[in-house]
Amino acid sequence: MCLCGMISCSDDNGRDDTILEMHRLTGKYWYCTNWANNKEGYTTDDLLEILKFGEDGKLWRMDFGGKIDEVVGSWTSDNNVITLNYTESGEEKWNVLHSGEDYLHVKVNKGERNFVLEPRYLQNLAADAFLIQEISKTEEVPLRVGVEITGANTVNIGDAEVILAKGQVVPMVYKSRTKSWNARDVIEANHLGLPGEERLVVFYINAGGNPVKFSDRIYAGEVPSKSFDAFQLNAINKGQVLEVSWNAFAQAGIYYRVEVLNGNMDTSNPYFVSVLYDNISTLSITKDTKTNNDLPNRMGELKNGMNYVVRLSAIVLEPGMDYNHKYSYTNLQSVTFVKRAFVWED
What is the model's pTM? Predict the structure, then answer.
């Protein structure tokens, strides 16, 4: 990045980078951390911003947590000024100070922003916040909030928290087997006015010494539910095959995930986590059955005579999300789950 001052700067090719050349910026996702040294603040002006200038004049924004982008307006440029016309919030003018193939330094109102292409420390990361309803045979379990940061680069995160509201901060802990960070403590949904209203949740991470905040939205809506007996969950192994069956919901838009866990229900060390399925009520699981998001299939490690647990989740995805989408696993709206113990017999 060039120094800013009264003299012009040049990039590595001798080009004067104080002169805007828009073709160098289009078709790329530009990242600005907006870090304001406010680690636990429930604020939105210091969140990670990701924008793309479409070659057709459309302005795109990416949701970092869910990896989903959408058109949020349009853009035009004139000399060294880029005008962003947001559909919802109106016009914003950027005075470009320096720009190149992989950097963009702009002045907006009285402040400055530095944009770069996707930083390596943010690659392969995703995050989600959603509602969780556990169905128990013996007790009524309160509705909870689940939060999760996933991806290969989670190993490089040294610290993570979720900010639920002003003054409500929950530390997150790392699970190496599933390459994820999850809330350390139980988060009860009714403390946040859920599920009756939508809620913005803010994540904080420090990845390799780089602090970043970003957000996800918990959507309002009915969480699918029925009694433990009505689920009719059953798990029987026949040789090296585990046959799982259940009573599916009648309504559309509910998808199913099956997990095989140890007898202590250790979700950080699963033997199997399925992909999402639509419109099924049985699943045959072997050591070769496809798993979710490249998690290892460890069914071959189950031992004769040992106790295990099958957990069935009925999942509603965020509005507009297709269950076959590459990032459906990190765009959950709600998870309703029920579990049943079984004994593995070779």
Answer: 0.91
